[in-house]
Structure formats: structure tokens, C-alpha cells
Design brief:
The chain is α/β, with parallel strands linked by helices. The protein is built from 16 helices and 19 strands. The chain has a seven-stranded mixed β-sheet with strand order 7-6-15-16-17-14-18. Strand 10 and strand 11 form a beta hairpin. It starts with a strand and ends with a helix. The structure holds flavin-adenine dinucleotide.
Length: 494
């Protein structure tokens, strides 16, 4: 079966990692990408001498990248930095930030005035989170399921003690372990990495607190996150993989034996033995394949992750009062989380994340300057379709940040770019601008998530954030392994 041709639709991390694995097994690969360069959400903006990673700024489970390169017989060419402290959190009603350390005794020091006995409480909480992680990582997360029955049979092998955590929220679980509102809020921020709030995220995802604080921690890449894309594309090019940019697949034609051929906007048919689609696995089935189950009305009823509102600021001067990864929060967390993501009004006191990557990668900014990435989670385009107020929202955030770090960002700005959910949708076909794709509630994971093998066409597969197992860089790398296994199995190679 060696030498078969596979076309991959999309050069996001999911598509690139799949190309790496499949090319290692002897397949010939073509990658078709609608954007002008590779990376998808893991992309780069170069502007006025500054370089910005436009989306992901760190990741957990770094060993998944090691596994990817090992699978392909290559030494991992990426150099990772561990984040320590993992991040800092600024509350509007508190003069100093909290520094979140992996070392629990140091973390207890941060919380000594607000949470008595923090260390032993955290140990109990994290022990439970660790056991959920290790009882599901290999059994459930890194598995392909052929149907619902297969999924339920697999779930039945997970210790039953975890079941109640599927049905209560992360917030209610934190409430059982900690007293301080600030501690609960800080531990609940991981829910936003799944693109949701802790009030609608199941408590099983407390396993993410274990991954950030005890397991592998958080990492970024020396040279910038886009180095992941540069290094993988270089290897793929050296293997003869063909990249076709500025080309979007918009339709298909059915061939004999329940097979498909994909067609681009100009009407060109991309003939291939198989296709792996890295476009959103739910919306592609609706907009390109015309499946009724994935019509706009049906997709709108699904649970989508929050949309990003992102600002890329290049400033003159050095920011001494801020670290690499920072959260800026207000004093009405629950009310904010409950209301803001389903309204059409921009927040007047936004909650946001700030990353200054020039602090660890000085090449990202000219001498004496910093590059600032601001991410404010906002409603997707179902709730707020008009973003004409984007400059005002950016001003509100930048003014708030200036006063909280004691640095006049406006006066020192050399470059400023804003992406609203409209730009995010248009750049990468993200459904209604949803940043992380389909959410991860119990009805949208495992065999309930759009499968990585098409229901109808036997030469069509999917990889990436909205198919299994889910979103986030290491999870998408796992997705590339799962889809590769499907392809190899169907071709009788494994
Ligand atoms: C603002 C932001 C911050 C984030 N921060 C983090 C973080 O810190 N850590 C982390 O782990 N994760 C983070 N994520 C999530 C992470 O970026 C995603 O989970 C991951 O990059 C998804 O990769 P993917 O390959 O599935 O999809 P994508 O990156 O979306 O790639 C899909 C590609 O397919 C192309 N495409 C789509 N449709 C078509 C078509 N019809 N024809 C041709 N090409 C097409 C798109 O242009 C795109 O290049 C963040 C996401 C966002 C938006």
C-alpha cells in the first residue's frame, strides 16, 4: 500500500502532524491551505519589526510533541522552556498579583492570608484530579471508538468513583475543597483553556489543574511558538510534501464505491486516494458536504467554545511590572462569566490574558521594545455579530492594562493590530469565530464528538480540534495519531 496519495485540507497543527506521521509511513502528501501560510490558529503575525504568535502561547503535555517526532524517527527539533511561575493573576481589588507556582509550599505562601491549610487542601484536590487524569488518558482520551457501544464499554472500565464528576460543575467541585473565592477563581481559570466557564465545565476537567501544577506543567518554545510550524514544515518540504496556499476546498463530488473527491473555490478537483480534513470537523460536514445533521441551525444549537478578541501591541520601552503570562481579572467573576458570553454588548470592565513573549524571546521585538499579546474571551458571532466597536473595546482593555501595570501603553505604541471573532472566522473557517472549536461537555466528547472517520465516504477522515479527542495543541497532536491509526488500519498496514 506504500506510495498512496493523501490530500490534507488545512495546514493547522493537526494537518501538519498528520502529514509528518503519514509521510513517515511512505504516503505521498499534498496539503491544501486557505490561508497564505501554514499554522492555522498556531500562526504568526509580523508587523513593523515585531513578531507575534497570534494564538497559542503555551501548552501542557509537552511529551506529546516528543512522541510525535519519535513516531517519525526524528529527534525532536524543538526547544521548550518550562514556565515557572506558571502564570500570575491580577485582581482589580488587590494591589499585588498572585504568582502561581508548581511548588505547593511556595503557592501556599501566596495564599497564606486567604486560604488556611492550603497545601493539604490542594494535595487532596490534586490527588483526585491526578487519578482522573491517569484513569482516562490512555483508556479514553488516546483511543479511537468505532461506535457508541464501543465508547460506553470503554467508559465502563474507568473507575466508577469518577462518575459524579461528569455531572457537577468544576466550580462546585472547587467549592467543596476551598474557601477563598480568589483561590477558587484561580483554580477555575483552566476551564477557559477548554473555551468555557467553570460554571458550565464538568468537574472531571479538574484534571487540567493536575496537568498544570503537578504533572508536566506549562511550556513554550524557544524562538516563539511559530517555531513548531517552521520546524515541521521544513521537515515536510524535505520529504517532498507539496504545500498549496490560498486555496479553499468548498465542495465535493462523489465517485464510485462511496468515495469522494474534493473541489476548490476555482472548481479544480483535487484527485487523491484519501483525504484528511483539518478544517473544523463539524462545520465542514455542514458547509462543504451539505449534511443536514450539520446545517447552520443544528450547528448553532451545539455548544461552542468562547470566541477570541485579540490585540497585538508593539511598544517602546520595557515592562517591568508584568511577567510572561498574566491574567487580569475584575471583582465580579461569577456574574461576568454567567452574562458576558451570551450578550451582544462588549464588556466595560473586561477580563483578559496578557502574554509578553519578548520577555523570554527577545528576537520578537526590536531592541528596547516589547511585544504584547492580549486575549479577551468574548461571545461568538451567534450572540454578537457586529464588531464595529472593536477599537473602543481595545481602548478599554489597553487603558485598564496601562493603569494596572503603571505604564502608558498608548503613548508608547508603535504597532497595533486587532482580530475580532470576524477575522478569526474568516482567516481559518472557525465556526462563528469560536476560538477552540466544539466545547467539551459530556455530549460532545468521545463517540459523541464528530468522528475522525467520515460516516459516508470511506476515503475521508478528519483531524483537529473539533474531532476526537478535542482542542489544545497536545490534544491535536494526539488527534493526528488517532487519525493516522485509522488510515493505516483501513489500508491493512496495522
Ligand atoms: C486565541 C487562541 C489562543 C489559544 N491558546 C492556546 C494555548 O495557549 N495553548 C493551547 O494548547 N491551545 C491554544 N489554543 C487552541 C489551539 O490553537 C487549537 O486547539 C489548535 O491550534 C487547533 O489546531 P487544528 O489543526 O485543529 O486547527 P487550525 O489551527 O484551525 O487549522 C485548520 C487549518 O485548516 C484551514 N482550513 C479550514 N478550512 C479549510 C478549507 N475549506 N480549505 C482549505 N483550508 C482550510 C485553516 O485555514 C487552518 O489553517 C488557542 C486558540 C486560539 C484561537
Amino acid at each position: 500500500m506504500q506510495g498512496k496519495h493523501i490530500t490534507i485540507v488545512g495546514a493547522g497543527l493537526g494537518g501538519l502532524a498528520t502529514a509528518l506521521r503519514l509521510s513517515s509511513k511512505g504516503y505521498r502528501i499534498t496539503i491544501i491551505e486557505k490561508h497564505h501560510q501554514a499554522g492555522g490558529r498556531l500562526n504568526r503575525l509580523q508587523q513593523d519589526g515585531f513578531s507575534f504568535d497570534i494564538g497559542p502561547s503555551f501548552f501542557s503535555m509537552s511529551y506529546e510533541f516528543d512522541e510525535l517526532f519519535q513516531y517519525c524517527g526524528i529527534d525532536n527539533p524543538l526547544h521548550f522552556n518550562e514556565l515557572n511561575p506558571v502564570y500570575s493573576v491580577y485582581f482589580s481589588n488587590r494591589s499585588k498579583p498572585y504568582y502561581i507556582h508548581k511548588d505547593l509550599s511556595k503557592l501556599a505562601e501566596e495564599f497564606k492570608e486567604i486560604e488556611p491549610n492550603f497545601e493539604s487542601k490542594a494535595k487532596t484536590y490534586l490527588k483526585q484530579a491526578a487519578s482522573i487524569f491517569h484513569d482516562t488518558e490512555n483508556k479514553v482520551v488516546k483511543r479511537n471508538f468505532n461506535n457508541l457501544l464501543h465508547y460506553f464499554l470503554t467508559l465502563s472500565t474507568v473507575p466508577v468513583k469518577h462518575a459524579p464528576l461528569m455531572f457537577r460543575s468544576m466550580w462546585s467541585e472547587l467549592d467543596k475543597h476551598f474557601e477563598s473565592e480568589d483561590v477558587k477563581i484561580i483554580f477555575s481559570l483552566v476551564a477557559f483553556f477548554l473555551g468555557a466557564t467553570p460554571f458550565n465545565t464538568p468537574a472531571v476537567y479538574s484534571l487540567l489543574n493536575y496537568t498544570e501544577l503537578q504533572h508536566d506543567g506549562y511550556w513554550n518554545v524557544k524562538g516563539g511558538m511559530y517555531d513548531i510550524v517552521t520546524k515541521i514544515t521544513d521537515i515536510l518540504k524535505s520529504r517532498g510534501v507539496e504545500f498549496v496556499y490560498n486555496t479553499e476546498i468548498i465542495s465535493f463530488q462523489e465517485t464510485k464505491d462511496n468515495k469522494v473527491q474534493l473541489v476548490d473555490r476555482k472548481g479544480k478537483v483535487w484527485v487523491s486516494d484519501k483525504y484528511v480534513v483539518n478544517s473544523d470537523a463539524a462545520s465542514f460536514r455542514g458547509s462543504v458536504l451539505g449534511r443536514k445533521k450539520f446545517s447552520e441551525t443544528k450547528l448553532d444549537k451545539l455548544h461552542w467554545t468562547l470566541a477570541p478578541f485579540t490585540i497585538y501591541l508593539g511598544v517602546k520601552g520595557k515592562l517591568d511590572n508584568i511577567h510572561h503570562h498574566n491574567y487580569f481579572l475584575g471583582d465580579n467573576f461569577k456574574q461576568y462569566a454567567d452574562q458576558i458570553f451570551t450578550t451582544s454588548i462588549s464588556p466595560d470592565k473586561p477580563y483578559y490574558y496578557v502574554n509578553v513573549s519578548s520577555k523570554s524571546n527577545p528576537d520578537c521585538a526590536p531592541d528596547g521594545c516589547e511585544n504584547i499579546f492580549i486575549l479577551c474571551p468574548v461571545p461568538d458571532l451567534r450572540y454578537k455579530s457586529n464588531w464595529d466597536d472593536k477599537e473602543q473595546l481595545a481602548d478599554t482593555i489597553i487603558n485598564d492594562l496601562s493603569s494596572r501595570i503603571g505604564f502608558d501603553l498608548n503613548k508608547n505604541t508603535l504597532t497595533r493590530t486587532i482580530y475580532t471573532p470576524v477575522e478569526w472566522r474568516d482567516m481559518f473557517n472557525l465556526y462563528k469565530g469560536s476560538g477552540l472549536g466544539l466545547a467539551h461537555d459530556m455530549k460532545q466528547i468521545g463517540a459523541f464528538r464528530p468522528a475522525n472517520k467520515d460516516e459516508q465516504f470511506k476515503n475521508l477522515y478528519y483531524v483537529g480540534a473539533s474531532t476526537t479527542p478535542g482542542t489544545g495543541l497536545p490534544i491535536v497532536v494526539i488527534s493526528s495519531k488517532l487519525v493516522t491509526e485509522r488510515v493505516l488500519k483501513d489500508d491493512g498496514i496495522i
